[in-house]
Amino acid sequence: MDNDNPRDAAARLLEFVNVSPSPWHAVASMCRQLDNAGFQRLEEREHWELARGGKYYVIRDDSTVAAFVVGQGDLAAHGYRIIGAHTDSPGFRIKPAGSTAGGDHRRAAVEIYGGPIVATFADRDLKVAGRVMARDPDSGSVVPYLYQSAGPVMRLPNAAIHLNRQVNQDGLRFQQHDELALILGTLHESAPDSDALRDTIAAALAVSAADILAWELAVADTQAGSFFGLDDEFIAAPQLDNLASCHAGLDALTTIDPGDISGVAVLACFDHEEVGSHSFKGAQGTFLVDVLQRIAADRGDDAGSVYHRALANSMVLSADMAHAYHPGFPGYYDAENRAMVNGGPTIKVNAQQRYSTDAGAEAAFMVLCDEAGVPCQKYVHRNDIPCGTTIGPITGASLGVRTVDVGNPMWSMHSIRESAGALDHARMIAVMRRFLDRPSLPCPEER
Fold it and tell me: Are 418 and 236 in contact (CB under 8 A)?
């Protein structure tokens, strides 16, 4: 394995998660690291001139990003090595009305985003983070702002067990429309109809509340990520699904030597995976195809031929977290095809193609793990539990490129606070580096 200390790698991940409470903050955090690593930002609306050995990145709508390193070899012959992940996580989003009156209290109405474990948001110190669109009063143009509250500003208080006597038998449940509005504060008689949340955001951004036109604001946990366990062998944090994969890919891409790249090494992190990826910046959009085609176009007049030949020599590593075996719930797992926390990167297999892995991609990833010196696991879902999916099938189908679905095993997926192994993050970084800088892909040859 690469000489990276596992605890150091896990600590870097926790630091990244701490400053990335929303997809927009995650991409801003990634861009800072890319800038520090010498990557040049490109704009989609401008002409690109790419150099061999050059390092670049491009953003679409502030929450989807692709970064790439142009190798020294022939693109058509060596292809693209693509790591795909996603920047969004399930949870709550603040509705446009902001704060409203509820009894004697100021509350924020929320919409459920993706498939969170709703009950885990109860009794937590919550903040607001995301993107705000405001009008510039002088020019009339729309200006985007990153925003997060300075600390906890809202809460979803639970009902006392004295009022909900069956909670431990029936489970904690909230009526998803009427009972999820978050407590923001006390309603002031002097201004019962004011939007206190909008006013607070406006003051923090130094804009007029009337000039705030729209927002995309996520509800986020304020508790920082941490190590736990008798030997600090585990980590706990919000949004490990899937910021852990974004960070692993970013760490791998920014630490490889451009001189070791033969084709083009790519990291693509998409928004909207948790809601189906069907958007102009999701994995079902054109973003990745646009980026790859523009890279090929820079290689000469026969760009179409170069692009399609390159795809035939390419591979996608779809990185999204995996379900770890939970000793408290053994019945949820296939006993012979389960993944263990701190057991290493996991290949995810599904015959229905909910995961994109085929035998060739599976074998190739096993070779990469062996060469990187890291253990490799395999996971298959139970037949009687519906299987989730990833960007893998979408990306593999749209590009026509062999794809493997992998991820580090974790507990409490889609909880407000998830947990995973402290050893596995360094291992995933190591195998991703090997994937990006290996001279040729270890894929089976056509016969």
Answer: yes
- What is the signed CA dihedral for 116, 119, 121, 125, rounded to 10 degrees? -170
DSSP state of 445: P
Please confirm whether the linkage preceding 168 is cis (ω < 30° from 0): no
Q: Using CA atoms, how far apart are residues 365 and 347, in angstroms rounded to an integer?
A: 8
0.90 exceeded by pTM? yes
Q: Tokens representing 95?
A: 């509705």
Give the three-state DSSP class for 364.
Answer: helix
Closest by CA to 180, choosing from 72, 67, 95, is: 95
What's the rounded Cα separation, in Å, for the pair 245 and 26? 12
Query: CB-hemisphere CA count at 13 Å for 57?
Result: 25
φ, ψ at 82 (rounded to 5°): -115, 125
Over residues 190-232, the pLDDT tens digits come to 555 578 899 999 999 999 999 999 999 999 999 999 999 999 9
Helix (H) / strand (E) containing 95? strand 91-102
Amino acid letter, 88: D
Token pair in block for residue 357: 């892995």
Distances (CA, A) of 426 to 9, 342, 412, 430, 438: 5, 11, 21, 6, 18
C-alpha distances out from residue 289 to 7, 319, 363, Å: 36, 18, 26
Q: 265-321, pLDDT tens digit by residue?
A: 999 999 999 999 999 999 999 999 999 999 999 876 687 889 999 999 999 999 999
Cβ contact 426:408 at 8 Å = no
Number of helices (H) and strands (E), helices first, in the chain?
11, 20
Is residue 196 within 8 Å of 99, Cβ to Cβ? yes
Evaluate whether 287 touches 54 at the Cβ level (below 8 Å).
no
> How is 4-17 classified by DSSP, letter by letter?
--HHHHHHHHHHHH
